[in-house]
Amino acid sequence: xxxxxxxxxxxxxxxxxxxxxxxxxxxxxxxxxxxxxxxxxxxxxxxxxxxxxxxxxxxxxxxxxxxxxxxxxxxxxxxxxxxxxxxxxxxxxxxxxxxxxxxxxxxxxxxxxxxxxxxxxxxxxxxxxxxxxxxxxxxxxxxxxxxxxxxxxxxxxxxxxxxxxxxxxxxxxxxxxxxxxxxxxxxxxxxxxxxxxxxxxxxxxxxxxxxxxxxxxxx
Amino acid sequence: xxxxxxxxxxxxxxxxxxxxxxxxxxxxxxxxxxxxxxxxxxxxxxxxxxxxxxxxxxxxxxxxxxxxxxxxxxxxxxxxxxxxxxxxxxxxxxxxxxxxxxxxxxxxxxxxxxxxxxxxxxxxxxxxxxxxxxxxxxxxxxxxxxxxxxxxxxxxxxxxxxxxxxxxxxxxxxxxxxxxxxxxxxxxxxxxxxxxxxxxxxxxxxxxxxxxxxxxxxxxxxxxxxxxxxxxxxxxxxxxxx
Amino acid sequence: xxxxxxxxxxxxxxxxxxxxxxxxxxxxxxxxxxxxxxxxxxxxxxxxxxxxxxxxxxxxxxxxxxxxxxxxxxxxxxxxxxxxxxxxxxxxxxxxxxxxxxxxxxxxxxxxxxxxxxxxxxxxxxxxxxxxxxxxxxxxxxxxxxxxxxxxxxxxxxxxxxxxxxxxxxxxxxxxxxxxxxxxxxxxxxxxxxxxxxxxxxxxxxxxxxxxxxxx
Lengths: 219, 242, 216
What we know:
Chain A is an all-alpha fold. In chain A, 77% of the residues lie in helices and 0% in strands. Chain C has 8 helices and no strands.
């Protein structure tokens, strides 16, 4: 075992980690937007739209993320939509994350009892005011653990983008491996970097959660 | 003109007709207590007065204005009619002060500078001035219900509705809530209550309304109603409530 | 280049064997390990609880793809001999399964109230008897929906074995796609097969969950 030959590739590793973070954050934000829109559509009265969202959720939750990335990268060009690797991976991962987000956000909104809404209405608040001040904060708190753990899974899942040669961390691993032939050492280091990133996010989310949700839990 | 006029109100949930032609007037300053078995329609009637439910037929007018879920000034109307629920329904993520000042601030009733003073004032009226910075979950059930009452008072309502506000409380906490309501009654607030507290109904109310099977079965001053019920249904209800 | 033919269709379905085999292997080795992890997580000994929590935390904080590569290249380093790729891959999927199922089952065990253990103890049952007859059945009922949910995650996860050269479903798709230049048809078919495998499980998991909510 010899890790020394890897030392000169630290800049590539850092660059790869940055691309991984970009891919994660972009996909998470886009996925959350999809999740919010989907949750609103599921709550809405337009039946065909609800079916569409349900179909989308099932389709993306019941097929491997890897295949989804392949389809966006290899199949969409047949329809004239040729995306570079990073963009293709971001689109696929956003859709994947979005499918989970819809359910998480909907569950968060559903966790707020009807009586809270009524209490707000009875004080003369508008529909938007009730949503913004009475439903949203506790719903966010209830959805927070699921969203953040899904975010960490997304961070780890971005490694699949290496299979269409997006320049993220795992792809960098392959590059270093091809230069050094130190396969085991490379992937040990790569795993450690993912581990460090995942743990950092978990710690960050825990702190943010404590700061943002300070009211005592229902006994 | 009475403050609240209820004319031949019908309300059906699914196949169950809960209200079968209810008529009732409540004058300004009156304390009206609605009693009756569960399922007699009393809570539904209360929710109709606040447009939480819409009536199927008949009419409810408050201060001359017809009430229903699509009335033009629903939000303004609800600011004038306070309702306190069985389950308190405080907002768990807001401190007591913010629970009270949220609606007055958002509806533009007061400005930020006066908010805390308003909260302190209404909390004093329910005897909880020292809890202004507490979270709802840190309070006992009785205290939470008093904060819920204070939250309504902050809107300076013309009419207060109480929907079994002591039913969810431990017996030893009922008294403190009733005391607050009694004080409000003495200050001339118009109140309609649904309650199982016969002692309160007897001592504080001006009028008892006995509802049975979706109708106003019998009504009158408490002394008369409790001493000489005219219908066997009321007599058996009073006997079972003791 | 040749057109997409019956033989491609057959090769995709034949590849299902490996998908199923990997799932079965992962469960066969991972489930007992998961039970050990779950029990360790609720043990009386703080040291054991911490150690198990750390194991789970590490595995869950590394990409599955990383685990696969780590053991694929690491097994020879650890053991000093070449091992078949299947063994390395099985080790990775086993640990992956153990960590996720262990955490799910711990949640189930913890959801059973402490009073249930005490009630068992009052009846004079041994610790194992309490677990076997009182705690486990209740915990199992509660953790069944997420367990089935994880099965879906595992089936989808086996697609990563393609990257190490296993000709399971996803890899067969790549091969067929490359041979026929019909990526649309091939990947749509591959996705459809995964979908057909996973959707019933997802629906089952959801109905189990609904039943659990209803009985609560």
